[in-house]
């Protein structure tokens, strides 16, 4: 049975979420401390993590970044912060979804089910049409190599490392600058446009790079 790790320091909310998770036939595990949750996840990875942003000690952003250093377990971040920048920070840290407090426990369970359903489908999916080999620095579409510029490859490689995760333009820009590439934020859109054109030329109708309105881009494989 799927275990759901709930990291929340508000006892009443944690208990409420646990009740709904249990009613949906999952096994809830509640932690009110980020460091304890991180240690438990290392020892026994759950199916999904529901993570509060504001935690004592190790906060949600730090915990999410630490998780992403060794695990791709799905993370739904929940918080009372409603500013766009907070949502972007959560997604940049590696969260798969974001829910603002107060939220409906039913909606949270629906999102848990949707994420786990997608994860189950990807585990049984055939080989992806798009393959990015970072060691060989090449991208293949149905076995056909794409002719990419260094910047285009870095954008595609960043998206491919975490398929399904939304990357902001600023995040992609930082990644390219770490590779000593001269780029501007506006150039990110141009690189994505070129990537889409080249992928479509190799496999008409294949559109793995999605635009997420107001946030950035996501790779769906």
Account of the protein in words:
The protein is α/β, with parallel strands linked by helices and 221 residues long. The chain folds into 2 domains: 3-123, Rossmann fold (3-Layer(aba) Sandwich), CATH 3.40.50; 130-219, Orthogonal Bundle (Arc Repressor Mutant, subunit A), CATH 1.10.10. It contains 8 helices and 11 strands. The chain has a 5-stranded parallel beta sheet with strand order 2-1-3-4-5, sandwiched between helices. A 3-stranded antiparallel beta sheet has the order 6-7-8, with helices on one face. A 3-stranded antiparallel beta sheet has the order 9-11-10. Helix 2 packs parallel to helix 3 (60-68), helix 6 packs across helix 8 (185-202) and helix 7 packs across helix 8 (185-202). The radius of gyration is 19 Å and the shape is elongated. The mean pLDDT is 86.
User: Structurally, how many domains make up the residues?
Assistant: 2
CATH superfamily of the largest domain: Response regulator
| Major β-sheet annotation | 5 strands, parallel
- What sequence of helices (H) and strands (E) makes up the elements? EHEHEHEHEHEEEHEHHEE
CATH class of the largest domain: Alpha Beta
Structure class: alpha/beta
Low-confidence stretches: none
The gist of it:
This protein is an alpha/beta fold.
Defining key terms:
single chain, 221 residues, alpha/beta, Rossmann fold, Arc Repressor Mutant, subunit A, 2 domains, 5-stranded parallel β-sheet, 3-stranded antiparallel β-sheet, 8 helices, 11 strands
Can you lay out the helices and strands and say which pair or pack?
Layout: E1 3-7, H1 11-23, E2 27-31, H2 34-43, E3 48-52, H3 60-68, E4 75-79, H4 84-92, E5 97-100, H5 105-123, E6 130-133, E7 138-141, E8 144-145, H6 150-161, E9 166-168, H7 169-178, H8 185-202, E10 209-212, E11 216-219
Parallel strand pairs: 1-2, 1-3, 3-4, 4-5
Antiparallel strand pairs: 6-7, 7-8, 9-11, 10-11
Helix pairs in contact: 1-5, 2-3, 6-8, 7-8
